[in-house]
Amino acid sequence: QGTRGRSWVAPPGTSLLASWLFRPAPAEPGLFALLAGVAVARALAHLGMSDASLKWPNDVEAGHKKVAGALAHATTDGEGGSLVLGIGVNVHQGLDDFPPELRATATSLALAAHSVDRLSLFVDITRELERVAKPAERQAALEEWRKRSTLLGREIEVTREGRPVVRGVAR
Question: CB burial class (10 A; 0-12, 13-18, 19+) of residue 142?
Fold first, then answer.
């Protein structure tokens, strides 16, 4: 599943599609969801792809095309709540594995010339998610998000119901 009810297209065996449950929910779950992109980018760096960039809020790009995304669902309760973090990484897809409408904006690790074992990637993402979940690591992860961001410093327009609400430079 993607944002706003969109589908994540992944023929069998081509992607890493996983969900992680954090209970109790990490402190500042919204920030943690943002830093999930950093965790994925770091995991990809361990496997040889050090140039991953981050598109707001938590899409991971290779060569300005989406290679991974994260989606978080949080709940609250008297026991600290929970956060389910779903992450999809396009690993082995060829160009023809993507629907025609996504071929200009999506890629896979294979198309970006990176051969990756999905289990190794899962282990590395898990390790990096645990790392960014630690309060002592948050500042470094946030700084890394800023360095990898494709949004900061660019002119942006925020819209609501198709109408511009705010225009400015992303800081």
Answer: middle
